[in-house]
Design a protein that fits this description.
The chain starts with 11 loop residues before the first helix and ends with a helix. It is mainly α. The chain folds into 2 domains: 37 residues; 34 residues.
């Protein structure tokens, strides 16, 4: 089977961290990237990591606000 090459630009520190993590798993960079591509192509609607991270952050902020409201309520009750 004929093969193609893809070149990407990546900050050196990310490349180094990626390479270290890949090597720690006993794989090579090409195999891991091919796994990413296969996974991406097999998904009907790829999960948007950034979108999920933003949703998670909003949920965490909402939880912090709920806890803060509970603390304020408890303080108010103890002062009454």
């Amino acid at each position: 089977m004929a093969e193609s090459r893809i070149n990407i630009r990546i900050p050196p520190e990310k490349k180094d961290a990626f390479q270290k993590k890949v090597e720690a798993t006993g794989k090579n960079i090409t195999d891991v990237i091919l796994e990413f591509i296969e996974q991406y192509l097999s998904e009907e609607s790829p999960i948007q990591i950034v979108d999920l991270a933003q949703r998670l952050e909003k949920l965490e902020q909402a939880e912090v606000l709920k806890r803060l409201e509970r603390v304020e309520q408890m303080v108010g009750e103890s002062l009454a």
